[in-house]
Amino acid sequence: MSERLSGLRCALCKAVGYLVVDHVRGIASCESCGQSALVSDGEIERAGA
Ligand SMILES: [Zn+2]
Q1: If you measure from the C-alpha of residue 33 to the centroid of ligand 1, how many angstroms do you get, rounded to a whole number?
Q2: What 3-state DSSP class applies to 43?
Q3: Burial classification of residue 19, based on how many CB atoms lie within 10 Å of its CB (0-12 exposed, 13-18 middle, 19 or more buried)
Q4: pTM for the complete prediction?
Q5: Residue 23 contacts by C-beta under 8 Å, 6 or more apart in sequence?
Q6: What's the gap in Å between 6 CA and the centre of ligand 1?
Q7: Could you list the pLDDT tens digit for every one of the 49 residues in the chain?
Q8: Are 21 and 1 in contact (CB under 8 A)?
């Protein structure tokens, strides 16, 4: 199960709207540059709730 985070910006490539969070794995990945990162940001937790 994953969800696109339309309002968040990728820290690496600065693209907005390409971040997709995987709630099962607890990671967010960027579909623009392909990078992924662990989700520890409160904003992402609120977006998924
Ligand atoms: Zn990116």
Answers
A1: 4
A2: helix
A3: buried
A4: 0.66
A5: 1, 2, 3, 48
A6: 13
A7: 788 988 888 888 999 999 998 888 888 899 999 988 766 555 555 544 4
A8: no
